[in-house]
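User: Working on a comparison across species. This one is Putative N-acetyltransferase YhbS from Hoeflea marina. Can you predict its structure so I can line it up against the others?
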Amino acid sequence: MSHSDFVYLTEDASHDAAILLINEEAFGPGRFTRAAERIREQGPHDRRLSFICADRGEVIASVRMTPVLAGMTDAHLLGPLAVRPSHKNRGVGRELVRIAVDAARRAGSHAVILIGDPPYYRPLGFEPTRPGALVLPGPVDPHRVLAACIDGVAATDLAGVLRHRSLRHGIPRGV
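Assistant: Here's the predicted structure for Putative N-acetyltransferase YhbS from Hoeflea marina:
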């Protein structure tokens, strides 16, 4: 199987069941307790900026983007990013991240934020945010909060409550 067999597509509703299965495989039931999941529960992800990778018609990976505010800065939360175990270490995840960040840039986002592994994401253009500057709805290792910034905004400039963009005029309960 070569990379030429992989097709990257914008996510649509027909991919939902496969994405759910891939996320279950990758993260298990503990994924629902994570701070990033608390943000995703505040409102829908943006399908226009969310993508899948298919191999011969089978969905084998996905990345979702959720519109968020970092303080008052329009941004997107990247994740979950998940790849089926049979297709790991082939560059699929890196390509999905690249596609999603480019799409966010074209959509006018000022930053793409994620909670993830710095050695994986730093080579993809993500930098650490200032520890504790972004307030999330749950515990998180501050060294895993990373951002790829657009339009001259620096990762260390991002500050404030990280919440779904639909909550622009209110802070969700529990934060």
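For your comparison, note: The chain has a mean pLDDT of 89.

User: Helpful, thanks.
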